[in-house]
Amino acid sequence: MGMGGVRTLLVGRGLLESPRWHGDRLYFSDWSAGEVVAVDLAGRSEVVARVESLPLCTAWLPDDRLVIVSSPEGRLLRLEADGTLVTHADLGRPGWNDVVADGRGNVYVNGAGSDPMAGEAFRPGSVFLATADGSVRQVAEDVAFPNGMAVTPDNATLIVADSYRHHLVAFDIGADGGLSNRRVWAELGEGVPDGICLDAQNAVWYADVPGQRCVRVAEDGTVLQTVDLDRGAFACALGGPDGTTLFIVAAEWRGMTESEMVAPGTGQVLTVEVDVPGAGWP
């Protein structure tokens, strides 16, 4: 599938990430603006939180509260009903990227081991777990550049996109939230996975910035569907009334060492209808 069938919901934004369908709206982060934004299917949008953070990723807890990663502070923030932000967990150090919460309220947050924007030498990244009681511990290491994450509907498997190794890696989730049985879930060839989401047939959609596309793959890496775009795809999420709307956040990528990583104003929220509804988390 090419650009045909791709509809534009919102334009004029910056570096967009972390799309999450919740209730009857899509929530996403505009990293350039430091804003978490909600948009409905008519394209009406509002800012629901402001956090000065690069990256700026979010997850919904099972009790319908939103957690936001404040990367420079090394904290998980929680958006309360009155619009205030409180500390959900202290991650102990700065430098975090994506986040997913499973159906038990376990929050997985990952981070790179080094900062390419600051010119640091490469070190692999890791995954940490913040449990509902506020404790934080490392549960996985040696993910070269961890990006999007997803949890299967049975809370049994965590899938992590490793952008630098061009694959999706999976872990079994234990009763205590710990991770084991690490394995490559899908080799992606030239694919560079950023944000990911799962569907009800246990396939993963991954967004690809340099490839300017979203790709649906089976567990063995078989490509099932491709949505081609005219700009970098940073993340995707399934949602909408039937769960079959694929929301894609996209922008014109300039590079990690540029003063502005995407061309200003090129951030868009796009939609395409697909056959298989979303499942699991996010």
TrEMBL record:
<protein>
    <submittedName>
        <fullName>Gluconolaconase</fullName>
    </submittedName>
</protein>
<keyword id="KW-0378">Hydrolase</keyword>
<feature type="binding site">
    <location>
        <position position="17"/>
    </location>
    <ligand>
        <name>a divalent metal cation</name>
    </ligand>
</feature>
<keyword id="KW-0862">Zinc</keyword>
<feature type="binding site">
    <location>
        <position position="194"/>
    </location>
    <ligand>
        <name>a divalent metal cation</name>
    </ligand>
</feature>
<feature type="binding site">
    <location>
        <position position="97"/>
    </location>
    <ligand>
        <name>substrate</name>
    </ligand>
</feature>
<feature type="domain" description="SMP-30/Gluconolactonase/LRE-like region">
    <location>
        <begin position="17"/>
        <end position="251"/>
    </location>
</feature>
<dbReference type="Pfam" id="PF08450">
    <property type="entry name" value="SGL"/>
</dbReference>
<comment type="similarity">
    <text>Belongs to the SMP-30/CGR1 family.</text>
</comment>
<dbReference type="InterPro" id="IPR005511">
    <property type="entry name" value="SMP-30"/>
</dbReference>
<feature type="binding site">
    <location>
        <position position="147"/>
    </location>
    <ligand>
        <name>a divalent metal cation</name>
    </ligand>
</feature>
<keyword id="KW-0479">Metal-binding</keyword>
<dbReference type="InterPro" id="IPR013658">
    <property type="entry name" value="SGL"/>
</dbReference>
<feature type="active site" description="Proton donor/acceptor">
    <location>
        <position position="194"/>
    </location>
</feature>
<dbReference type="GO" id="GO:0046872">
    <property type="term" value="F:metal ion binding"/>
</dbReference>
<dbReference type="InterPro" id="IPR051262">
    <property type="entry name" value="SMP-30/CGR1_Lactonase"/>
</dbReference>
<dbReference type="InterPro" id="IPR011042">
    <property type="entry name" value="6-blade_b-propeller_TolB-like"/>
</dbReference>
<dbReference type="GO" id="GO:0016787">
    <property type="term" value="F:hydrolase activity"/>
</dbReference>
